[in-house]
Structure formats: structure tokens, C-alpha cells
Design goal:
The complex is a heterodimer of chains A (about 325) and B (about 725). Chain A has about 325 residues and is of the alpha/beta class. Chain A contains 12 helices and 11 strands. The chains are: A alpha/beta (about 325), B alpha+beta (about 725). Magnesium ion binds next to helix 4 and strand 5 of chain A.
Chain lengths: ~325, ~725
């Protein structure tokens, strides 16, 4: 039951939200940190969609990137290291009306939180997940992360890391029940905005790997890509991202890619010499877990109270008078 | 011409039977020859009895007994020999259930099973009975279907439709009431929070009472009261808002359209509205009368939704809601309410009812009408309904209803009027044939063909109109093989058409249109009705049409058909032709159009490679180029930032936030080039990781170290 009038009046009387409405505390990231760019893009998406700030939740784990919720003028949950996704799932389950965003680092997501990531993908709950991949543990000041390129010198790998880097895109394209995967660098603001916007519009678990600059501990990591636009392959499609004239001038290297094509998505990610950027895979038809588990009746406050009491009573030790 | 032939012609022309020779009409045990193989129905596994399933969540609302048993057998009896005995036992049970169910009593499926099982077991003794009992126990363990057992009879259409309606409406009601009750809880919460702020609950006395006796010594309630009072926000709901919330709450709590799902709601003694009726005028009147309440409810829901989101703006919304009334209800709003289901008997409808039916089928009122027809040959409603309108229409005989379940659901779920025209013969015992056979014969003989019209299935008739469930849709009459033994006991097989006249044999009110033709008079001048109808007028002279009938003693007989019935049969055929055209079969327009088209040999398809850049695309490319060029600043001497590429990294703004600033998109631009030094400009350009700051030429020639700075700035020249 939705009443037409409400829809209409909601819009008619709603205050216009500006970027400031989505701003929280002053960011304390390093100057030049790519997280600033991600924050700006996210706030622009919120403004574009005119999301009511009280209907937004940002959930994060631990890391520099996980400070994100503090900087948004919305609800937030700064969680435990690696546990952003289960918290976000819990929120979505009980409050499917909220717009849930998750910010997680490469350490947070691909290391300690990797198992949650696999299953959150499979549960496909409607949320937008941004994995800030700076190839390093930033907050704890320079330890190699799973995505650090082989040979990375860090506090934990002073002679250079020994393992090949873990590829989050290849990994996620192999997860079951996948519904949305994208990759975008933080330094192309137009694309960053488009990708986050599309991810938010997608109904399901939208995973974005954002290549993030950390001038502190991975200073030159993305320098070659930034200097040489031809090292970036932009995947365009009517159901994906589109190139503005300004971008088309700077980035000559682009290719049509239908995000519905999983085989092609895997091929591009697995073999491309260049950095593929854009929406890599999208399937709008995967059912969302919160829809499947929608309670089939309404729980009144009495029901909730009684249920909780019954549960708590199981552990009660009655005091002796 | 023989005397008997003359008599038969006379009967044909006048409809009056004469002396003994051509005096008989078909009796109550007469059966059209083509139907004979089906006379003993309960021995066949066909669509009946039907089970109206109790499980409202199941996607189908009805299933056939044979379908249910097929599944049971598939689930528990192993393939091949191993499962053979179990299979046989279960089929015996099904057969007995079918026999018991044919007595017209209301059965529940479980009771029918139980009685059938008991009666079968009573017939056996010893190990035989034990084996049977074991099989039944196995089957019962796996069986989890329950519902009401119904036969194909006069009650079927209304029962099936009401059952389907209730199942579908239960879903709609669940959604609507869920929404309403959630809003009630939320509105009550808003009021409750406000009530708590009035301080009454924070007095030391109240707190003491709340904590209870056991711990009353452990607390200082005066102190507690002070702390709590201090920490309670003092902002109360404005009076106007409180009033508005209470009013909306009152409407939601007292609505009578949906049954409350949660217990403990006070209903204020008024019952729920009924939506099932047996009178069109009454239904229309009640709809008119309830419109204001519908508007009130929609208004209350909308206000509640806005209030719960704190999105109600008095300045804009109040004026809207004061004007909101029935006239403002949209079709989307109306869809939230249950439609009416009106079950009518055509024979009891007067001209006014038929007018209402027309009105309903051409409008968009939420009315679902079952028009039950008992005289299939001359019924009125089906004819009026073939004119495509706004309504969803399904026509079917009772015998075919189960196969139309998909359409019944569509019609009931359709947002607008739906008319179900269903033929079900009366249970008046005038004929010995089962009602199922009579109904099936009505469909088979084109007397009551099946069709559906779904106004939202597509833009054209071809998408909307469907006659495909009729047999042999392309021909006038379906043909079947008629086999019998002749006088020499030789098997004879003939192709024979089943016409509306064959159907009339079993409709008691048409009995007088037939007269028996004595066996000795059978001749080439007697033609089966289908062949007779093909004759030109001049050819019919000295010929008579007949139908083949089998009597109670299993003798094949011929009955001459009078001219009056032949006319009715012709009309039936005409109506069928009209229906065929609507259903896209033998369409006269397309036939005429086809004739005009000269035959063209089919040209081989040649693949032409598209030009690499079409003219259109080329112009787009040029435009884009221009767009880009326009964005280049004219004078490169001025410092500037390629703002769209700014990544909001704070490097430049941290350096000098009067010189560099963010625009409304949080991307940097040069706000005031004179608010700092050229050195700052150049350093910012160097710090910028995406190299989009262009320092231009120095603005203050007196700034120290300019030469070196200009050299560094050269790297950022556009
Ligand atoms: C359970 C647990 N283990 C380890 C830590 C220490 N720790 C804090 S942040 C972090 C890694 C952060 O790296 P990443 O997730 O990539 O975020 P970044 O700071 O790079 O944005 C670690 C290991 C912790 N807080 N909790
Ligand atoms: S350490 Fe790296 S990731 Fe963390 S705030 Fe600084 S630049 Fe950003
Ligand atoms: Mg990291």
C-alpha cells in the first residue's frame, strides 16, 4: 500500500538538500588522501538523489577509510575491524527503508573481513560497498595489505613483500550470487561519481573497488596510471558509465562493455594489460536476502517486548529476597 | 418421395410432430452419439471433482483430485514394479473417492479420504486388507493437502470464484492492513513520546510506583526525578500537529475495509465491510456510499506517512488535505481497496441489471461480476461482452473452469472491472447425463465457446483476445469419430461434426425441436446438421437435417431437426464466426487484404556493411569537439584549474583558502589569483596530484625569485 498523494507531497514539501547537509565532522585524513575525493563524490550522489540525511547510514570497520561515517552528516556506525558488512546486514535486515553504505579498507575487507565479504556478496542485500584500496594498512602506519604489489616495502615487509598481490576483482567475480561489481580510481571525479551513483541505484549488493591514493605510505603507487591515461581502459555502456567530452579528450582508451556479460567481465579483469575502470558486472535480477526474509506479519511493540523478555528470561538468575 | 419422408419434411418445416410414425422426441436418457464414450464419468480420471485448496499461500487456488493423486503417487511410489502395488492401491482409493464425491454432498478432502478408505477396507479381509491398510497409511503420511471437494455443478462457478477471490484478496488485505497497523504503531509512538515529556511520569511518586516494592529502598526517588526531569527535552508537539495525528489515528483505527491482523485492537463494535454481493444495483450503491470513507482513509494514510517521516509541511500540505475528497481518489488509490464480487444468475437478471453490466464493463469500477448462464443456446450476456471494452472478460463453461484458473486469477487481479460469463446447467434432473458432460458439450458444440479478453495484454486485439482453448478453432464445428455396429454387426466408423443441434438434444427445453426418424426411412435425403447447413437454400428442398442419438437401450437413432432450431444453430455458427474473427482466425479483413497483395518472390537478404561513420554520428563528433574547445579558457596568461577533474584532495585549498576555493560541487577553482603569491600558485600546481592547476603568468612583476618560478610553472602550461 503506497498512497500516490504521499509521494507527490513528499516531493512538493521536501526541503532541497545541499552538499553541506551531508557533511559531518571536519575530515582528518592527510592532505592529498584519496579518501577526500571519495567523500566528495559520495556527498554529491546523496545530493543528486536528494536522500534524506536521516534515512542514510554509513557503516565501516577500522582503518583510515573507516573514519568515513564521522564525516557524513547522516547516521553512522564505526564498527570493528573487518566487521562492517555483518553490521550493515543487520541494519538492512531490520531497517530496509534506510540507504546503507559501507566503507571498508583493503585490509578491512580483503584480509580480516574476507569471509564476511564472500557471504555478504552471496546474501545480496541492497547496499553500496566502497572498498578504499590504497594497497596498504594506512591507519596502523604502513603494513603490507593483501593488495600490496609484490615487493612492497613496509613495516611488516622491510625487504619487500613476497606474495603476488591479491586481486579483489577476480575474486569477487567468482563469488556466488554476484550482482554488481565496479572499479574506479579516486582521481577521476566524474567517473567516481557515476560509478557510486550507479551502484547506489542498483538494487542489491553493489561492490566498488576504489583505487585510492595514500600519499603517506604508498606515495607513488598510482603515479604511472595518473601520468599515462592510456594505461586506463574505460568500460562504457548505456547501462554503465558514459564519457563526458572532457574525459574523452583525456582518456582515449575506452571500450564498450555490456555489464550483463559475466564471461566477458572475467576475461577483461583477468587479461587486460590496462586498468579496467567502470561497471564490470551488473545483474539486477538477483533476489535480495532482506526481501526473502521479510517477516510475514507485523511485530507490535508488545510482541517485541514479549519476545525479548522471553529470551532474557532464559538467562535470568532471580535474586533471593 | 416416401410418405414418411413427407412427414419428416412437414415436421421440419412446422415443428409439429404428427402421428405415431414421427412422434417421438428424445427422452431424458438420450445422448448425442458422440458423447456416449463419456457417459460413465466417475470411471474416468478427468478434471472433477476439484479441490478448493485451503492453503492460501499456494500459487494455485484449486487442483484436480487426479492431479493431487498423480503427485502423491509420483512422490511415494517407486518407479516400475517396486511401486506397482502401492500405485494400484492409491488409484483404488482415488476411484472410490470420486464415486463418493459424485453424490453432491459437501466433502472436505480429508473426510472424503477417510470414508473412501473405510469403505474399501470393509470390503477386504485378512492379509489383503492388511496390505491395503499399509498402503493407505504410507500414503496418508505423505499427504498434506486439504480443501473442499466440489463437483461440476450449478454451484461450482460461484464457489470457485469466491474461493479464488478470497485467496487473492487475503493477500491484498494483508498488505494493506500491515501498512495501516504499522502507521498506527508509529503514530501512537509519536504521541507517547510526547506524553512522556509532560513530567507526570517523572514525579518521585510515579517513579517509586514504576520501580516496584522490592527495590524501593535502594533508590532516592527525589534525586532520580530531578535527574530525569533535567534530561527530558522540553519541546512538546505543537497543538496543531497533535490534533492532526490524533485525527489520522482515529480514522486508521476505525476503518472497516480490512480486518485487523494484530489482536487486541479495539474495533468499536462495528463490523467489517462486505464485498461479496448478489445484486448489481446494491453493489453499485454501496460503492458510492463508501467512497467518502475511502477518501478519508487514503487521506489519513497519507497524513500518517508524512507525519511518520516528519515530512508534513503545514504551509503546503494542509491546503491540499482540506480539499481532498472522493473526487481526488486516483485509480492507484482505488487499487488498495478490495473490489466487489457480484454473483448473478442470468435468468434472474432484468433489463436494468443488463444495463448495469454494460455500464460496469465499459467503465473502470472495481467490480468483478460472475454472470452464470443456464440457457446456453439463447443467453444474452456473452454476446454483449464480445464488444471489446475496458473490462476483463472470461467466458467459459463450468466444465472448463479449472483450465481457466490462470485467467480467473488474471481477471480478479486486474485493476478494473471483470466479467466472468459461465455456463453451468441446472441440477434439475431433467436429463440423466452428468452436468459436466452437458457443460462440456456446450463448449464443444460452439453453443458456449470459451474466450478471454484481457484489456492490458497488449495494444491490439491479437494480444488481448484469446479463443485458443476451444477445440479445432479454425473450423465451424469440431469433428470426432463416431463408431457403432451396423445391422450385420460390422463396425462402422464415420467422421461426424458436433453441432449446436447435438447439444440441443440434451437441453430439455429444446426437446420439442426433434422428432424421431423411423429406421426404415433413413435415406440419402437425410443429412447430418453440419452438412445440411452447407446447402444453398434451393438445395434444402426435399431434404431434412438430423442428429445421431443413442437411446437408453444403446440403439443408434436419428432425430429430424426442425427449422426453428436450425435457425438457432445458424445463429450460433454466426456468433462463432464473429468470435473467430476477434480471435484472429479466418479474419475477413486480412483475407481481403491478402487477396489484394500480388505474389512477390522473396528476395534474398543481402547484408550491407554499415558506413563506419554515418552523417549523423559525424555531426555529433564535431559538436563534441566544439564543446571541448569552448571549455578551454581564452587567455592562458590567467591562472586556472580544470575544475571538473579536481579530486577534492585539499592540497591547494590548504595552501591558501582565499586563493583556492571549492565550488558547489566541492571541486576547486581559482577564487582570487591576487589573494596570494605566484609562488603559492606554482607550489599548488606542483602539489596537485592530477596536475590540473595552471599558474599562468606572474601578476606581480615585483615578486622575488620570479625567474625560477616561471621556469617551474612551464611544466603546467596548458
Ligand atoms: C581485530 C583487530 N586487528 C587489528 C587491528 C589493527 N588495525 C587497525 S586498522 C588496520 C588495517 C587498516 O588497513 P585498511 O583496512 O586497508 O584501512 P586503511 O587504513 O588503509 O584505510 C589494522 C590491522 C584492529 N584494530 N583490530
Ligand atoms: S595515511 Fe594514507 S590513507 Fe590514511 S589518511 Fe593519510 S593518506 Fe589517507
Ligand atoms: Mg588500506
Amino acid at each position: 500500500m503506497t498512497v500516490r498523494a504521499t509521494e507527490f507531497l513528499r516531493r512538493a514539501g521536501a526541503p532541497q538538500h545541499s552538499l553541506e547537509d551531508y557533511a559531518g565532522c571536519l575530515p582528518r585524513w592527510c592532505t592529498g588522501c584519496g579518501d577526500n575525493a571519495i567523500l566528495a563524490a559520495v556527498q554529491k550522489v546523496c545530493r543528486e538523489e536528494q536522500l534524506p540525511p536521516e534515512k542514510i547510514v554509513f557503516v565501516s570497520g577500522i582503518g583510515c577509510s573507516s573514519r568515513f561515517p564521522h564525516y557524513m552528516g547522516s547516521y553512522g556506525f564505526h564498527g570493528l575491524h573487518g566487521r562492517a558488512l555483518p553490521i550493515a546486514e543487520g541494519i538492512k535486515m531490520r531497517r530496509p527503508d534506510l540507504h546503507v553504505f559501507v566503507n571498508t579498507g583493503d585490509g578491512d575487507c580483503c584480509s580480516i573481513g574476507a569471509a564476511h565479504w564472500v557471504h555478504a556478496t552471496r546474501y545480496n542485500m541492497n547496499m553500496t560497498v566502497m572498498m578504499h584500496d590504497n594497497n596498504i594498512y594506512g591507519l596502523t602506519k604502513n603494513q603490507a595489505s593483501p593488495t600490496s604489489p609484490r615487493g612492497t616495502r613496509s613495516n611488516t615487509t622491510p625487504r619487500g613483500s613476497l606474495l603476488e598481490a591479491f586481486d579483489p576483482l577476480q575474486a569477487t567475480l567468482g563469488f556466488s550470487n554476484l550482482s554488481f561489481v565496479a572499479q574506479v580510481p579516486d582521481w577521476i571525479p566524474d567517473l567516481l561519481f557515476q560509478v557510486i551513483h550507479e551502484a547506489h541505484k542498483h538494487r542489491g549488493f553493489s561492490f566498488i573497488r576504489i583505487l585510492q591514493r595514500c600519499p603517506e605510505f604508498q606515495a607513488n603507487r598510482w603515479e604511472p596510471c595518473m601520468q599515462d591515461p592510456s594505461s586506463v581502459l574505460i568500460l562504457t555502456h548505456e547501462n554503465g558509465v558514459q564519457l563526458s567530452p572532457v574525459l574523452a579528450r583525456a582518456y582515449k582508451n575506452h571500450q564498450e562493455h555490456d555489464p550483463a556479460d559475466l564471461v566477458e567481465a572475467r576475461r577483461i579483469v583477468g587479461t587486460s594489460e590496462q586498468l579496467p575502470v567502470g561497471i564490470i558486472y551488473r545483474n539486477p535480477n538477483v533476489p535480495c536476502y532482506e526481501d526473502m526474509r521479510k517477516p510475514d506479519r507485523l511485530y507490535t511493540p508488545e510482541d517485541v517486548k514479549n519476545g525479548l523478555n522471553a529470551e532474557l528470561d532464559k538467562f535470568t538468575i532471580w535474586p533471593r529476597d | 418421395m416416401s410418405v414418411t419422408m413427407q412427414k419428416m419434411i412437414n415436421f421440419h418445416l412446422t415443428g409439429k410432430r404428427g402421428d405415431d410414425e414421427v412422434a417421438d422426441g428424445p427422452g431424458s436418457n438420450a445422448c448425442p452419439a458422440l458423447l456416449v464414450p463419456y457417459r460413465r464419468l466417475s470411471e474416468l480420471r478427468y478434471d472433477f471433482p476439484l479441490v478448493l485448496l485451503d492453503d492460501a499461500a499456494s500459487p494455485a487456488f484449486a487442483d484436480t483430485l487426479s492431479g493431487i493423486f498423480n503427485r502423491l503417487i509420483r512422490d511415494i511410489a517407486p518407479e516400475g514394479n517396486a511401486g506397482e502395488q502401492l500405485r494400484q492401491h492409491i488409484l483404488q482409493l482415488e476411484k472410490r473417492m470420486r464415486e463418493l464425491a459424485s453424490d453432491g454432498v459437501d466433502w472436505s478432502l480429508s473426510k472424503l479420504w477417510q470414508d473412501a478408505e473405510t469403505s474399501l477396507l470393509a470390503e477386504r479381509k485378512g492379509p489383503d486388507a492388511e496390505l491395503l491398510g499399509n498402503s493407505f497409511a504410507t500414503a496418508r503420511f505423505a499427504f498434506n493437502v486439504e480443501g473442499q471437494v466440489v463437483n461440476c455443478d450449478e454451484q461450482l462457478p460461484a464457489r470457485l470464484l469466491q474461493h479464488a477471490y478470497k485467496a487473492i484478496e487475503a493477500k491484498r488485505a494483508k498488505q494493506s492492513i500491515g501498512k495501516i497497523e504499522l502507521l498506527i504503531i508509529k503514530l501512537r509512538n509519536i504521541l507517547q513520546v510526547d506524553d512522556r515529556k509532560n513530567g507526570a511520569s517523572q514525579t518521585p511518586q510515579q517513579l517509586k510506583k514504576d520501580v516496584g516494592k522490592r527495590y524501593k529502598e535502594s533508590f532516592d526517588f527525589d534525586l532520580m526525578s530531578e535527574i530525569l526531569k533535567d534530561s527530558t527535552p522540553g519541546n512538546r508537539l505543537p497543538d496543531e500537529r497533535r490534533k492532526r495525528i490524533k485525527a489520522a489515528l482515529a480514522v486508521l483505527e476505525s476503518q472497516r475495509f480490512f480486518t485487523p491482523a494484530t489482536a487486541g485492537r479495539n474495533r468499536k463494535g462495528r463490523g467489517q465491510y462486505q464485498f461479496i454481493a448478489d445484486n448489481l444495483s446494491a453493489a453499485l450503491k454501496s460503492y458510492e456510499e463508501r467512497l467518502p470513507q475511502m477518501a478519508e482513509l487514503i487521506k489519513a494514510v497519507s497524513i500518517a506517512e508524512l507525519e511518520c517521516e516528519n515530512a508534513y509541511r503545514e504551509e503546503t500540505h494542509s491546503a491540499y488535505f482540506t480539499r481532498f475528497g472522493p473526487q481526488a481518489l486516483t485509480p492507484e488509490d482505488l487499487e488498495l481497496f478490495p473490489p466487489y464480487l457480484i454473483c448473478l444468475q442470468e435468468s434472474e437478471c432484468n433489463a436494468r441489471d443488463m444495463e448495469h453490466l454494460m455500464e460496469i464493463s465499459s467503465g473502470d469500477l472495481p467490480m468483478k461480476v460472475l454472470m452464470q448462464v443456464t440457457d446456453a443456446l439463447t443467453h444474452r450476456s456473452g454476446r454483449t461482452l464480445t464488444a471489446p471494452g475496458n473490462a476483463f472478460v472470461l467466458q467459459s463453461t463450468a466444465s472448463n473452469l479449472y483450465r481457466q484458473c490462470k485467467w480467473i486469477r488474471k481477471g480478479l487481479e486486474f485493476d478494473g472491472p471483470a466479467v466472468f460469463s459461465v455456463f453451468a446447467p441446472r441440477n434439475d434432473g431433467a436429463t440423466e447425463l452428468p452436468a459436466y458432460l452437458i457443460a462440456a458439450a456446450a463448449m464443444e458444440s460452439r453453443v458456449f465457446p470459451a474466450f478471454s479478453y484481457d484489456p492490458v495484454a497488449g495494444p491490439g486485439l491479437a494480444d488481448r483476445f484469446d479463443i485458443s482453448s476451444n477445440p479445432e478453432v479454425a473450423s465451424d464445428w469440431p469433428t470426432r469419430e463416431l463408431s457403432y455396429e451396423d445391422q450385420e454387426l460390422q463396425m462402422v466408423v464415420e467422421e461426424s461434426a458436433f453441432t449446436a443441434a447435438d447439444f440441443a438434444v440434451i437441453a430439455p427445453e429444446y426437446c420439442e425441436h426433434f422428432a424421431a426418424a423411423p429406421k426404415h426411412s433413413w435415406s440419402r435425403e437425410m443429412l447430418p446438421v453440419a452438412d445440411y447447413l452447407k446447402l444453398a437454400n434451393s438445395e434444402t428442398v426435399e431434404r431434412v437435417p438430423y442428429v445421431a442419438v443413442v437411446d437408453g437401450d444403446n440403439f443408434l437413432r436419428r432425430f429430424v431437426v426442425d427449422d426453428k432450431l436450425i435457425r438457432i444453430v445458424r445463429r450460433c455458427r454466426e456468433r462463432w464466426h464473429a468470435l473467430q474473427e476477434l480471435g484472429g482466425v479466418n479474419n475477413s479483413y486480412s483475407a481481403a487484404a491478402l487477396e489484394k497483395v500480388p505474389a512477390v518472390p522473396v528476395a534474398p537478404t543481402v547484408e550491407v556493411a554499415p558506413p563506419l561513420v554515418t552523417e549523423e554520428a559525424a555531426s555529433v563528433v564535431v559538436e563534441k569537439q566544439e564543446e571541448i574547445e569552448e571549455q578551454q579558457p581564452g587567455a592562458v596568461d590567467e591562472p586556472y584549474i580544470e575544475t571538473p577533474l579536481c579530486t577534492t584532495c585539499d592540497e591547494c585549498t590548504k595552501r591558501n583558502d582565499r586563493m583556492f576555493a571549492y565550488d558547489e560541487n566541492k571541486q576547486a577553482f581559482v577564487k582570487d589569483p591576487d589573494a596570494g603569491t605566484y609562488r603559492q600558485l606554482v607550489e599548488a600546481a606542483e602539489l596537485c596530484q592530477v596536475a590540473i592547476i595552471h599558474p599562468g603568468k606572474p601578476r606581480n612583476p615585483g615578486e622575488p625569485g620570479l625567474d625560477e618560478l616561471v621556469a617551474r610553472a612551464a611544466a603546467f602550461a596548458p
